[in-house]
Amino acid sequence: MTGSSIYRPPTAVQWASIPALGPWKGVLSALVNNAARFPFVVFADDDDTVTIYDRYPKARVHLLVLPRANISSISVLRREHLGLVRAMINSGKRAAELLSNAGMFPEGYKMGFHAVPSLDRLHMHLISCDMDSEALKNKKHWNSFTTEFFLPPEFVVSQIEEHGSVQIDRNRYEEVLKRPLACHKCRQSLKTIPALKSHIVNCRWADNEP
């Protein structure tokens, strides 16, 4: 099975066919609640989760795993939500395995939560490590996926297990988004997004790994 037969993000026309379903900040809840009306948005689903395509992908592959339960964000997670968080992680792993087997992750992938998400409704990102996308346009986009602002699922689970919630220093993480641009492979500093994108295509960091 080829990657193109598995990973089929909606076309611009399909996205445009979705009417306004409320405020933009609540768009994820609207999509989950109306998934049956717009099946082209859904990559996979099960009893606990819905995995959808990101409308503005920040890499060649970019999916969002959401719980069917209406949980607003990472900040409200408590120990009673651990089962649901693990269900989200398992859904992400299943999607990643399917895409990996189809050759969609030549540079690998990662899963994680934004420390301070911009949209309501708890969601976990599954994103390829190429960071190659026209929708990746500014420093905030870049740093939200290539710094500690992007919280690994294991960190989120451990925080809930140890503290009963995810400990987030909002001010600290918002400062992380303002850091200078740097290649996520070799950490070389670049001044602009175009320069960064040009650099990562030819970055030879992987060739020098031990």
TrEMBL record:
One Pfam family cited in the UniProt record for this chain: zf-C2HE
Matching PANTHER family: APRATAXIN, APRATAXIN-RELATED
Highest taxon above the source species: Eukaryota
Matches recorded under InterPro entries: HIT-like, HIT-like_sf, Znf-C2HE
Species classification: Eukaryota, Sar, Rhizaria, Endomyxa, Phytomyxea
Name of this chain's protein: HIT domain-containing protein
GO biological process annotation, one example: single strand break repair
Any one annotated GO CC term: nucleus
Keywords on record: DNA-binding, Metal-binding, Mitochondrion, Nucleus, Zinc
Biological source species: Plasmodiophora brassicae (Clubroot disease agent)
Domain HIT: 27-136
Subcellular location: Nucleus
GO MF term set: DNA 5'-adenosine monophosphate hydrolase activity; double-stranded RNA binding; metal ion binding; mismatched DNA binding; single-strand break-containing DNA binding; single-stranded DNA binding
